[in-house]
Amino acid sequence: MANPFESAQSSSFAIRPSVVVIFGATGDLTHRKLVPGLYNLSVDGHLPTHFSLVGFARREWTDAELRASLLEGVEKHSRRRKIDQAIWNEFASHCHYVVGGFRDPAAYEVLKSKLNELDKAAGVEHDRIFYFATSPNFFELIAGMLKDVGLLERGREGYREAPRSRVIVEKPFGRDLSSARELNTALLHSMDEDQIYRIDHYLGKETVQNLLVFRFANGIFEPIWNHKYIDHVEISVCESIGVGSRAGYFDKAGILRDIVQNHALQLLCLVGLEPPVAFEADAVRDEKVKVLRSVHRLNAAEVRQNVVRARYLAGSVAGEKVNGYLAEEGVDPDSETETFVAMRLAIDNWRWAGVPFFLRAGKRLAKRVTEISIHFRSAPHTLFQGEDLELLRPNILSFEIQPDEGISLRISSKPPGPRVRVQEVNMDFSYGTSFGIEPPEAYERLLLDCMRADPTLFTRNDEIEEAWDLVSPLLSMWESKEGQTPPVYGYESGTWGPKAADELLQREIGRGWRRL
Ligand code: BG6
Prior knowledge:
alpha/beta, binds 6-O-phosphono-beta-D-glucopyranose
């Protein structure tokens, strides 16, 4: 199995000819992320020699209309602002469109003919990657239809290790433990586990991958990566955007399902996991599952004490006045849905005994920033005393995942001068200055990994189930609406959330969330 940290150009990773079929080709994700990602892979020379994209959707479009619409998406959302016309033209000439309803068997026959035609024209058997960029209501249906038409075959026995047809499933994967199980069982009726690539785009982010390299390629951090040296961990996934045009989905989901169950818990896993036996898909995922299993499950009283939920009120973000959540278009005026959640979790194992993990995620906060900070214990003995004593603060190692990817270590230092004083300074590493390039988008990496049949950065079913199991007590308490249900606090848009979220930390560590 592939090493996830090897470069895409490595000889051991000749990517097989591939066709990516996108269900939901006229949708938002395709325009904002998938096609800009594929275009940038093409600019970087990472796509295989034989590559095609087939869009599948209901709208009566031609190939030319699809290409024009994809170009618009690339122009707006590509990380490279200036489009290279020659590369785009070449890329676009490999984009095709199939019109069809997801329930229409004839449309899948047309798709099949199209895929066979592409094989014939190129004189190769392309691997087939089906991307489910649709509402989750269609996942099971599309999988079944693909199977019925014979498009989910694994390929010739012994022909190669990985199945020829693979499916990328977008989140949300279920809306609770039982629906996630049902969806999984349904998908397994149509394909094998190793054909399913459940995407969590946070795993494709450079700094998230760097967390593993940082921990396991440096000898100096692992010995102190435990309860003896670490006081607590803070994980923040903060967004300044509101619910936007996604109220229909979000109002039924809430931030716990939208961000915490997947992205935030994945970050927690990468901080918390034991060294995997190898950088192989199952070895890494086995360790993540162990972390999730070790997270203490909160009982009702603990949910009330350790979890804060809230929703945004009117306010202003970046100087612009914005509505409160309940006034957003498409939100039920009686909605109880949370747009912010903060919680204290504990990992009950030897490494992390007694170390609180504080997680928060929210929309309409003061700014967009995702960060993990590791707060070390204070120096055991205070040698430097006097007026600057209050400045003697513990070391913090922080991983900024976005928007400015980098790692920084806060240390105490002596400013120049005749007196011994102590001042905090940062030792910084930033992607921009160290590597001189802008990191690729998460979707680029993940699309490429699926093309080379490497599932390491995709979530396995047991991870998803454990994560749902972990948030289940919160969901059932919030949804029960009985007398003891904790309140949904309000917070002004453009702030850092409700006071109760700071109090959650205050009680235990004597101060609120780290200022970001
Ligand atoms: C998605 C959520 O998974 O992640 C969105 O559904 C959220 O609500 C988005 O805005 C955040 O992604 P990123 O990469 O901008 O942090």
